[in-house]
Amino acid sequence: MRRKAQKVVASKIARAFVTLVLMVTSVFILMRCAGDPVAVLLGPDATADMRAAYSGELGLDRPILVQYLAYLHNVVRGSLGVSYVYRQDALGVVLSHLPLTLMLTCSALTLAAVTGIAGGIAAAVFPSSFIGRACTIASLVGLCVPSFFLAIVLMLVFSIQLNWLPTGGAESWRSLALPAVTMGAASSAVLARYTRVAVRESLDSQYVLAAFVRGIPFSRILIHHVLPNAAVPILTILGLLIGGAVTGSTVVETVFSWPGIGNLFVTSVGSRDIPVVQAIVLLAGTAMIMTNLAVDLGSTWLDPRSNSSET
Amino acid sequence: MTLPIGPPRVRTPRPSTEPILELRNIDFCYPAARRSTAEVLGGARLTKINMSIRRGEAHGLIGESGSGKSTIAKLLLGLTAPQAGQIFFDGELLTPARLAAFRLRVQPVFQNPIDALNPATPIGKQIIAPLLVNFKMKSSGCQARLAAAISAVGLSGEILGKLPHQISGGQAQRVNIARALILDPEVLICDEPVSALDMTVQAQILNLLSDLRESRGLSLLFISHDIRSVAYLCSEITVLKRGTIVESGSREQVLFDPKTDYMKSLLRAVPNSELGLETESLTSKPCSQPVGRRHLPAQR
Predict the structure, then answer these.
(1) Model's pTM, two decimal places?
(2) Reported ipTM exceeds the 0.85 cut
């Protein structure tokens, strides 16, 4: 049994590694297709000689395959190149922006997890009550409203009209409130919808009915029968939200001028700072893959059926 | 509330005319929003249902899909309330206040055995859960009862640590029966308990139910759309069509001398040999009398 579990974990890790290599390759190719970074970095007034010299300095004059192999070699050694703009280690530039993004995403996801899961459970358990209906409607609205629109509305109300919170920046905890709510709202809505469906499905199952007619109290049924069985789809969605949060914060960070990775990504794409863009994509991809791996392993633990061929 | 600990009591079958469970003039209709298409098309609206199950009796409830069989099971399990009429248990009117105690004496066995078990909980824990919760027993104190329940359904202790997906459908249905038996109920409501199982396992489960009824004096309400299973197990049969009882009586009356065209058409669909309807078998093996193990006729 233990051996089997180890085999499953090993196969999942191997799959994650292959995905990572494919992702690194895709990013490398896409960035080379996005135009000549030298032209953008030197501007329209640069001469052909200047461009050629700068291209040679950055190693962009070598054949694409050589560049790719060199890039892979550096990635394996833990070096993601030097930023064309900042003239510093690209990974270092990205990591210096990471704490602010983590602060934003952690706040947003905590808010989303608490409100989304609680709202989804309430909507499933009390579908006809005021609370249940309110949660269902709120989650639908949350799904329909785009982040940039919600951000602008919140900014208009809380920053401009009421003057309670700043419109942007990352000066204090007050600056975090609006971006976190904006980012958390969409995730909360997604979680609430999936939680409602998963809990409803579990509530309608025969094992819940069987527990009920055996005199087991509803609270115990909910905790011991419904939630453990509804946890797998909820965990999957939560994992996807966590994995996507690093890059998903791009719109919110841009609107609120939050100096995190999302903001850095937008400016780096604009300035064709390929090493920084590649570092961000690699980091975000790794986060997504690791989260998915954790979700896979968590699901296997929560639902033993997903890891068994025994009948 | 206390529960006698130890092996399940063996009740001598009491041939009794006294009903343990009785439905009187029951009318029921699902709220419009909860009606399925089949129900809207005419099924599951119960009208003037009068039915009684006597102690130690296996009572068959037969009818086509959507005729209201499972709705009667829900009413009898207290999962829904009738719009009109009364349900009596052991001579007493079933009221909301008596529902909790009633549920421990009337236990269900569902159609799909695997679905009726929590996929994430080991079998043993699922079987003893009602004892832990309802009687505040400790897990160690339930072991004798657990062993008795498991052995009563012909399973070994090895199965207790397994999860539902690790056992077969037949084993799962035995586990469901054991889970019902651990509360030492007086009535088992079996809602299509063999329809999701293959033929050989169907016969084993029917024989098990028959043996349990005989050894424990259990009353059975056996709901099925399969007239062969009902004919094999039950001494009394009620026939339901679109929410109305169209025929009711002893096995011999209903199978041998059907009054309605509907019942005649049901019987025509099954060869007599598969129902055990030969005159000899009817007179020599009445189903509610203690008899030796019968064998389910082979089904095609």
Answers:
(1) 0.74
(2) no
